[in-house]
Amino acid sequence: MIRHIVLFKIKDEFKDEIPQLVENFYGMKGRIEGMLDLEAGADVLHSDRSYDLGLVTVFDSMESFQAYQTHPVHMPVRKRMHEVRSASVSCDFEI
């Protein structure tokens, strides 16, 4: 299994959209074959090192994770995140 973690910094002009961005993530749950779990949420600490938004997904295999990258359900969410983010970091590891 693969755990995929992404943290996003959101551009100031889009910070009001964070609740909708979280909803967009949850809109993928149960709609992508091989995605076993999805959790997303907005940062609650707002510390100097905090990112604004986090996404954690679990895939049953590396092949499922790779298929997710271009899945039609994922593509509009990915596109929007590229528009609103100022930075992102990720970590993907086997569990």
Q: Could you explain how this protein is built, in words?
A:
This protein is α+β, with helices and mostly antiparallel strands. It is built from 3 helices and 4 strands; from the N terminus they run βαββααβ. Strands 2-3-1-4 form a 4-stranded antiparallel β-sheet. It is globular, with a radius of gyration of 13 Å.
Q: Could you give a short description of this structure?
A:
With 95 residues, the chain is an alpha+beta fold.
Write the SSE topology.
Layout: E1 2-10, H1 18-26, E2 35-42, E3 53-59, H2 62-68, H3 74-84, E4 85-94
Antiparallel strand pairs: 1-3, 1-4, 2-3
Structure characteristics:
Alpha-Beta Plaits, 4 strands, 95 residues, alpha+beta, 3 helices, single chain, globular
Distance between the termini: 5 Å
CATH class: Alpha Beta
Reading the helices and strands in chain order gives EHEEHHE
The CATH topology comes to Alpha-Beta Plaits
Q: What overall form do the CA principal axes indicate?
A: globular
> What spatial order of strands do you see in the largest sheet?
2-3-1-4
Largest sheet: 4 strands, antiparallel
Number of strands: 4
Structural class estimated from helices and strands? alpha+beta
Percent strand: 35-45%
Return Rg in Å.
Answer: 13 Å
Low-confidence stretches: none
